[in-house]
Amino acid sequence: MSLLNHPSTSISSSSSAFLGRDHRRLKTRPHNVLLPAKRSWICKCVATPPAEVTAYKTKVSRNANMAKLEAGYLFPEIARRRAAHMLKYPDAQVISLGIGDTTEPIPDVITSAMSKRSDALSTIEGYSGYGAEQGEKLLRATIASTYYANLGIEEGDIFVSDGAKSDISRLQVLFGSEVTMAVQDPSYPAYVDSSVIMGQTGQYQKDVGYGNIEYMKCTPENGFFPDLSTVPRTDVIFFCSPNNPTGSAATRDQLTQLVQFAKDNGSIIVYDSAYAMYMSDDNPKSIFQIPGAKEVAIETSSFSKYAGFTGVRLGWTVVPKELQFSDGFPVAKDFNRIVCTCFNGASNIAQAGGLACLSPEGIKAMHDVIGFYKENTEIIVKTFNSLGFNVYGGKNAPYVWVHFPGQSSWDVFAEILENTHVVTTPGSGFGPGGEGFVRVSAFGHRANVLEACRRFKELYK
Amino acid sequence: MSLLNHPSTSISSSSSAFLGRDHRRLKTRPHNVLLPAKRSWICKCVATPPAEVTAYKTKVSRNANMAKLEAGYLFPEIARRRAAHMLKYPDAQVISLGIGDTTEPIPDVITSAMSKRSDALSTIEGYSGYGAEQGEKLLRATIASTYYANLGIEEGDIFVSDGAKSDISRLQVLFGSEVTMAVQDPSYPAYVDSSVIMGQTGQYQKDVGYGNIEYMKCTPENGFFPDLSTVPRTDVIFFCSPNNPTGSAATRDQLTQLVQFAKDNGSIIVYDSAYAMYMSDDNPKSIFQIPGAKEVAIETSSFSKYAGFTGVRLGWTVVPKELQFSDGFPVAKDFNRIVCTCFNGASNIAQAGGLACLSPEGIKAMHDVIGFYKENTEIIVKTFNSLGFNVYGGKNAPYVWVHFPGQSSWDVFAEILENTHVVTTPGSGFGPGGEGFVRVSAFGHRANVLEACRRFKELYK
C-alpha cells in the first residue's frame, strides 16, 4: 500500500478548510494556542488548569509578559506531539529528525576526561568546590586561543556557561525590558521567546509575530540574508550563522555589511555561532573575523553540536572588553555581574570535558563526528532534491530547509509524522518567515537517516 | 608579638572616622562602590573602564536596573579581597571560612555514578542528548519521594536545575518587574540582587537597602524570626531556613505563622531549604510540612551543601500544582515555560550523581559529610563562646553568626583577615540587618578549622 493512500492522509489534507475557520476564531481568543486543535492529543501545552487545582488563589498577578507567549516553547511542543504519536501508534518505529538532538556517542578522549574529573572529586587533592562563575581560567584561555586566535579575544572576554540557550536568556536579562530587538525570520525561537518574557515586545499577532520586534525576512529570494536597507534601527540584533533553521551561512561580505549596519545604528549584534564548525564554505566562523566587530558584537557558542554535549551542557559567550553601552560603561562588566548573581558556573565535570574537546585529539574527534553528521546532511539533501523539492541549507549546517510552497508548515509536519513516523520541525515554529518550510535535522544514526529518507521517497514519490 | 599589636590593626581601627566621611560622600555618588576604598586593592569590581577601551560607543542604553546594583556580588568581592591579601602576604597560610564553599571530597558512591555516566556517553547504548528541561523523570520522582514523602509533592512538581542560585534568578524572571518582595534581613544576597536586576526595586540607600523591598529584620532580639505583625504585604516573600547567614532555623510554630501570613496576604513564599539536612532540632525540613503551604509556597534546594556539589552544580525547585496566580493560572505552568525557554536541563552527568546521592548508600554518605561539617561548627561555636562573644546559629546550619556589637562588619572582616589570614564573611554583605556581625563558615578541612580557631583565640584573647 502506498503511504500516500494511508487513510489519515486524507484527514490531514482535507483539514485545511477547517484550519482556515479555526484561524479566524483564534484572533478573538488571543490566549488560545497557536495551532488549531485538530486532534485531541495536540496542544496540551496551554491547557486549562488541571481538575485537582484547589480553590485558593494568591493575590500575585501573573506576569503579563508570560501571558503574551504563544503556545509552548517549540521543541517541548514537538516532543509532546511525538509522544502522542507514539501513543497512537505504539508499534511504529518513530525516527526523530526534529529537535536537532545529537545522537552519536561522545568521543572517548572527551568522556574519559570527564570520568577522570568525576573520580578525582572523591579525593582530597582532586576535589574542587565553587569554581569561578565565568569558568575555569584554562578553559577560557583555550577557547580564546582555539576559536579566536589572532582576533584580539582574550581569556577575560570568554564566559563559560551551561549552554548558549541559558546565555541568551542571561543576555536578555542584561539588556532589560527597554531595548528593541531584531531577529532573522525564521530564527531559533529562544531569541524571540526570551525577549517576550523580558517584556521587550508587544502582543502576538498571527502571521506577523510579536509587536516591537523587527523580523528580518530571510528567504530564498534574498539568499537568506536580510535586506538591511529596509530594516529599522534596533538596539539589539540577533543573528545566527550558519543559520538555524535555514542552514545558510553568511559570507564575509554580508557579515561586513551587518557589522557596518550595527555600527551606523549603534546596535549590539548577538551573534550565534553554535554551528560554525559545520561550515564547508570559506565564510567567517566568528563575527570577530570582521574588523570592528568587537565594538558592536557579542558571540555565543556551544559544545552541544560539536561534541554531542546537548545533555552534558557546556557553552560560552564572548563579550569583548571593547563593547560599550551609550554611556561608555563596558557591557562585559554588567554581563559579569549577571553571571555572578544569576549563575554559579558550568559543572566542573563538563568543563573538564570542554578542555578535552580542545586538545588536538579532541578537535580531531569533534571533526570526525561533525563529518559524520555532514554525510547525513548530504543524504537528506539528495533525497529531497530527487523528489523535486527546493532544498536549502545543508552545506554549512546540519539542517536541511525544505520548501513546501503554499502549505502550512504544521500541516506538512503532521502529514510527514502521520505517514512516515518521522519527526521534523515545522518552519513556522521559527517565526512567520518559516511558514511553508520544514526543517529536517541531520542528527541521527545513519540507519535511521537512510530509513527516514526511504520513507520520504515513499510518501512524496 | 601579640597579633593585636600588628601595625595594620591600628589602621583598621583608626579608619572609622575616615569611613564616616567617606560614607557621607557616597550619597552624592550613587554609582560609586558600597565600600570605602581604604586600600588600593579593594573594590576592583566597579572600576572605571579599562584604559584600552576604544572611543566607539554603541547607542544602546545601559539597563538602569544594573546601574542600581551596589558594588560587586558579595562572594566574588570576597574572593577578590582574598586574592589581594595573598598578593600582599604571599607566604601567609590563608584559610577560607568565607564563601561557604565545601571542601571535603564527594563520597565514592556518588562520583563513581558520575564517572560511569560519563563513560557511558561514549557508547551507543549509553549516549543521551537533550534531556527533559525539567530533569530526568527518575531523579524528579526520587527527590519527591526522598524529601517530600507523604506531603503530596509529586514528580511533576519537581524541577531539577543547575543549582538554587540559578533557580532564584529564573523565579525572578517568572515573577517579572511588577511584583513587590520581602526578604529576611540579613539574607543570602542573590534574592535582593536578582530582584534589583529584574527592576522590582528602587534605588539603594546606605544602611537602609533598596527601595521597594521589605527588609524583615531578623535579630537576636526576635530570635531571628521577623515580627510579621509589622511587615507590610508583598507579593513575594523570600525565606531561608535553616538560615544563611544567621544559622537559625524556624520552628514549626513560626513556619505556621509564616504560611498563615502569606495566605492572609495572598503572597507567594519562596522557601530556600538548601541547609535542611543540617538541622539538629526537630523543626520542619520543608515548608510543605506546614498544612496549606502548597497553595502559597515554592521551595528551592540543592545538592551543593549535602554532597559537596558546589562545583558539580545540581539543585531543584518545587512548584506545587496547587499554587496559583490571582487569575487562577498555575504558577508551575509559567515556571515550566521559563525552564523550557531559558534553560536546557542540568548536566546529565550531574543528574546521575544526584540519583546516587539519593540511594541508601548515598544518603548515608551525605549524612557522614554533613556530620563532619557539623563537628567543625561545634569547634567554631565553642571557640567564640570561650572568647566571650555572643554566638548564634551553628546548631542547625553550617554557619556561625558572631556578634561584634557596634563595629562595622567590613572592618571586622578586614581585621580578622589582616591579623589571622582567615577569610570570613562580613554580615552587612547580607543586608543592613547583618551589620555588626560576621559569618564564619564551617566548611573546611578539620586542620584548617582548628588552626583558624587557634588564630581567633590569639587575636581575641
UniProtKB/TrEMBL annotation, chains A, B:
Record's keyword annotation contains Repressor: no
Keywords: Aminotransferase, Pyridoxal phosphate, Transferase
Domain of life from the UniProt record: Eukaryota
Name the UniProt record assigns to this protein: LL-diaminopimelate aminotransferase
Annotated Aminotransferase class I/classII large domain residues: 93-456
GO molecular-function term, one example from the UniProt record: transaminase activity
Record SUPFAM superfamilies: PLP-dependent transferases (SSF53383)
Gene3D superfamilies associated with the record: Aspartate Aminotransferase, domain 1, Type I PLP-dependent aspartate aminotransferase-like (Major domain)
Essential cofactor(s): pyridoxal 5'-phosphate
A Gene Ontology BP annotation from the UniProt entry: systemic acquired resistance, salicylic acid mediated signaling pathway
UniProt source species: Actinidia chinensis var. chinensis
Family: Belongs to the class-I pyridoxal-phosphate-dependent aminotransferase family. LL-diaminopimelate aminotransferase subfamily.
Keyword Transferase: yes
